[in-house]
Amino acid sequence: MVPSWVSPRQNRVKVNVDTTLFEMSHNFGFGLVARDSNGILLQGRTVLALGQVKPALAEAMEVPEALSRIKSSPWHHVVLEIDSLVVVQALQSSVEMISLFGLVIKECKE
Fold first, then answer.
1. Ranges of each domain in the chain
2. Taking Cα atoms as reference points, which of 94, 104, 74 lies closest to residue 13?
3. Please, are residues 13 and 35 in contact by the beta-carbon 8 Å criterion?
4. Is the pLDDT of residue 7 over 70?
5. Closest by Cα among 97, 10, 19, 3 to 62
6. Which of 29, 32, 28, 52 is nearest to 42 (CA)?
7. 32 to each of 1, 61, 94, how far by Cα in Å?
8. CATH topology for the 13-109 domain
């Protein structure tokens, strides 16, 4: 059986973020969970936002929130885990995207 969550190395924190779209109610939400190497919950947060957005934009919008929480935390070694390949590729790219998605990605890089 493949585990659904793999703990970070000793003395590290893993922050997982994910998004969900509620198309019927025109909302979207994202959540953040921070756990230590023993799997103990350190912090969690969910946000429900009004409006319909494309999945990639919703996924990108969770990253600045996660980075802000990481920066304001006492954690020193953090792994941020996100399941959106589009967002990861955009974060690694040097191409400037002129769109709302690009603006969110730029915010993540600053």
1. 13-109
2. 74
3. yes
4. yes
5. 19
6. 32
7. 25, 12, 26
8. Nucleotidyltransferase; domain 5 (3.30.420)
Specify which residues 45 forms β-bridges with: 32
Q: Measure the CA–CA gap between 68 and 75, rounded to whole angstroms.
A: 12
Contact at 8 Å (CB) between 30 and 19? yes
Helix, strand or coil for residue 108? helix
Give residue 1's pLDDT band: very low, low, confident or very high (50, 70, 90). Answer: low
Q: Which one, of 63, 66, 52, lies nearest residue 87 by Cα?
A: 63
Chain centroid to CA 79: 11
Residue 26 has pLDDT above 80, yes or no: yes
Angle between helices 55-71 and 85-92 (to 10 degrees): 60
Q: Which residues pair with 63 in a beta bridge?
A: none
Maximum distance among all alpha carbons in the chain? 43
pLDDT tens digit sequence for 36-51 = 999 999 999 999 999 9
